[in-house]
User: What shape does this take?
Amino acid sequence: MHRPCTGRGAFAVCLSRPGVVLIALCMALAVPLSAQPLLDLGASPNFVGSGARALGQGNAFIAVADDATAASWNPGGLPQLEKPEISLAVEGFRRRSEMDSSTDPTIDSTDTLSLADLNYLSAVYPFRLGARHAVVSLNYLKHYRFDAKGDFSFALREPLPWGPTWENFSDVRVRYEQEGSLSSLSPAFGMEITDRLMLGLALNLWNDDLTGDSSFGYRSTEQGQYGIRFMGNSIVRNTQNNSSEGTYTVQRGYSLALGGLYRLTDRWSVGAVVKPPFTLHLKHERTYTDYVNPTASSDTRRDADLEFPWVIGGGVAFRPSDALTLSGDVTWSQWSEYTLDERGTTLNPLTSQSIHTDECEDTVSVRLGAEYLVIRENYMVPLRCGVGYDPGPAVNEIDRFYTGTLGVGLQKGRFALDLAYELRLGRGVNGSAAVNLNAEQDVVQHRLLASVIVYF
Assistant: This one.
């Protein structure tokens, strides 16, 4: 009996009628693969932290909080400031990320990301409110960064039930980049309640038209082929070549930071800060281009709500002498409530999947720091160091990061200069961004922060 043959070149297969049906079924299974990318790129917020002095002490600053950055760490510390001042901090960092996958060694890749940016800006004015000392300040605070970058390929193979020579295949190259931050314009107020107790609050205004820096964008391209193979040869193959580009911009949003600091003795003090949950109302503009099927391309603009969780922190500081300060902080962040509401669906911002499928784990950070003052007649040199366990939000398993910091400064007359360095390490982290590929990253980040304070 004659059987119709299909094939081209060196690969030709003669098919019976059941074989034709089988190939049709393969085509039906293969087509959906080209309609959806296999990789979900999410926005992971990376905590920034304000000021070179706090960074030099390992960011263990809740119970210290005796400079203008108290508006960020603990507004209850603001009444410790006795003179009007202005301050400025700038930073730069370089991050190296090595990606690998437990299922596909072709994914292995290395990427680096560098940037320099404004970290903090403030003006402080102390005054008397009745018999008590009070302080007001206006601050520009950078809270979270979303910078990420990657360029890698992957080749997935999945056996089909028809025999060991049949398989689904995906050969894809992905390039992506995220950039941007969330910043606030933050008036703050602190006041002595008693000789030992101080309270304060900061109001964070997140609107991009106020800060000029409350938006983050993304760009990604995916080029690849998907389909069915028999004995290593493609029977059905679909080509995908698309790009996606978009921006989330904060239209409106505000939040509060409430803090207190209590002097137990002349040597011991404790501090606490509470940051209630808040919502950022976003505008999401997105352009999707499908180079294989132009009719699938689209431009969209829609509203979205980004929900940030509770953050509660506590700290203790011990001053065994006038020259030495030891400090420690513990902070809990309820990342399980970190969600993105868009198109009537509640998503996990890290994976773009339903929050009912992917939920972030809550985190607890622990930070320890020390400052020693070398005091001379006309100047003072602070020496600082710190360590920390500073995990980040992730799905299924917490992203564990560890930090070590060093800092030095110079204070003379009306000027204070501070410089701090942080080494941040993470092994097997950022898996939420490529959860479908079972891929993780080893991250090494170097961060340098410099600040200047002028007293009046």
Q: What stands out?
A: Residues 227 and 237 are 4 Å apart (CA to CA). Residues 1-41 have pLDDT under 50 and may be disordered. The radius of gyration is 27 Å. The longest strand covers residues 166-192.
